[in-house]
Amino acid sequence: MKALIVGSNGQLGHALQAQAPQGVELVCADVDQLDITQPQAVTDWVERVRPNILFNAAAYTAVDRAEQDEVTALAINGTAVGTLAQAAHQVGAQFVHVSTDFVFDGASGTPYRPDAPTNPLSAYGRTKLVGEQLAGDEAIIVRTAWVYAPVGGNFVRTMLRLMAERPEVRVVADQIGTPTYAPALADALWRLAAANVQGIHHYTDSGAASWYDFAVAIQEEALAAGLLDQQAKIVPIATADFPTPAHRPSYSVLDKTSTFSAIGGPALHWREHLRQMIARIKTNG
Q1: Active-site pick, 60, 112, 124, 148
Q2: Nearest to 188 by CA among 237, 249, 135, 254
Q3: Protein fold of 2-214+225-284
Q4: Which residues form a coiled coil (predicted)?
């Protein structure tokens, strides 16, 4: 079994490598090795590697910057996905693509099912939706949300830095979703690939939280673990008090029922995974 991981240097790319089943041969490519917006380069890479599975963990994730640079975001999140899917199809490889909760508008009062109508509010969400459409019916498409890991830029690492530097941190309290630990997401992707369940799936940790709830939990766990030596005041604010170029869904909890069934059980609660990450950071620095 050979797997090609595109976007291998990101937090999910690292996790996919770490969670790979025993005996799988990994071939990794990041932007320095492969520009996925160049169709011939993608075709040549995939033809040369001839993987059994192609994971696309590459994405344009600068949500606010995408509002002014939708052309670039579309090239990476949309058009390139179609190129990767076609290249995978040509060599008979399974294509696994990662998408986002931002394809929804947040108007639902209940968790979004995989077949729920989409209505992205931002350029980022629109370009990721195009990627889903171009991935094709034979792909495994997994929507996720609020991904974090010990490496890379993410909310947990940012909060830990700000809490160590500042006496007060202001955090949005009226956007509700679910944090997702990258190693758990990677494990789910490998399991979905093994089950070969084509179509759209949802995966996050279990539970739900606001960004404010998440920040409070980060500080509590970090203080308990001795990772922080001072307590910052965490102030809940409204989205309107922290305007951003991109509109974000106010509620983007995903229904994972069918995914949990396919992979053999539910994910751990997001707080348990957060505790694991804090312990890992403390151990590894």
Answers
A1: 124
A2: 254
A3: Rossmann fold (3.40.50)
A4: none
